[in-house]
Write a structure and sequence with these properties.
Layout: H1 7-17, H2 20-23, H3 28-41, E1 45-49, H4 55-67, E2 70-75, H5 78-90, E3 97-101, H6 104-109, E4 117-122, H7 129-136, E5 140-149, H8 155-167, E6 171-176, E7 182-187
Parallel strand pairs: 1-2, 1-4, 2-3, 4-5
Antiparallel strand pairs: 5-7, 6-7
Helix pairs in contact: 3-4, 7-8
Length: 189
Amino acid sequence: MDIIFDTVTEETLIELEKTQKDFWNVPRKTGVLLNMFVKMMNAKSVLEIGTSNGYSGLWLSKALKETDGRLTTIEFYEKRQSIAIDNFKKCGVLDIIRPLQGSACEIIKNFSEEEKFDFVFIDANKREYVEYFNLIKPHLTEKAMIVADNIISHAEKVKTFVDAIDADNEFQYAIVEVPGGILTAYRSK
C-alpha cells in the first residue's frame, strides 16, 4: 500500500523528486522506509543530519505528525535550508521542525546533555559519518535507531562509519539494498 499524503504534500514531493540529482535527495523508496520506521518506533524526537531541500524531512515530519513528535534538522548551506523551510511551511509541518544551519559537527557538539533522540537520519558529508556517530551516540535514547544513506553508493567514504557501527556491541545493524543503500542500526543494549 502506498502512502497517500494531502495534495499539497504529494505535489511538493513529486516536484522535489524532479530535482533529486541536484539536491542529492533520497529516492522515494527510502522516504517511505524513513516514514515507516518513525511510525513503527513511535519516535518522538528525530534528528536529521543533512536537510537539503527538505525532501526526507517531509517524510520524517509527516510520520512525526502521527507520533506527536518533533524533528531537528541540520543543513550546512543556508540557501538549501531556506528552500527546505519554504517546503516545510507549504506542507504544514514547520510547527514541529527545528531547522538549524551550519556545521553538523559543531551544532551537535553544542547540544545540551539532556537533548536525546529516538531516531537519527544521516545524509550529509559522507566522510564525516563516523564523526556524526561519535557525537550523537551520547544523545541517543536507550532503544534508538540510526539510518544512514549512501552506504553502498559511497562505500569507501563511509567505511569508517560502518566499521564503527560494526565494532560497537550496543548496535545491531543491517544494510538495506535500496538505491544508494542505507544502513539501519538499532541500539539494542
